[in-house]
Design brief:
By secondary structure, this protein is mainly α. It has two helices and no strands.
Length: 65
């Protein structure tokens, strides 16, 4: 069964958030969530680079042997 959220559920969730956090904190909360999502998307778009940390660990373990 697919998980779907209708307009009634969205309104209920927003009302609960308004009650829990209050009208003053809600815009700050939305702004911080938006920044987090943006950073996550930017992080996923970046190409992975070589992990020099793992290379240096391998070299140091070979030197100790």
């Amino acid at each position: 069964m697919p998980f779907r959220i209708g307009p009634t559920e969205i309104i209920l969730i927003l009302a609960l958030l308004l009650i829990i956090f209050g009208p003053r904190k809600l815009p700050e909360l939305a702004k911080s969530i938006g920044k987090s999502v943006t950073e996550l998307k930017d992080g996923l778009k970046m190409k992975p680079e070589k992990e020099e940390v793992s290379d240096s660990k391998d070299e140091s373990s070979q030197e100790n042997a």
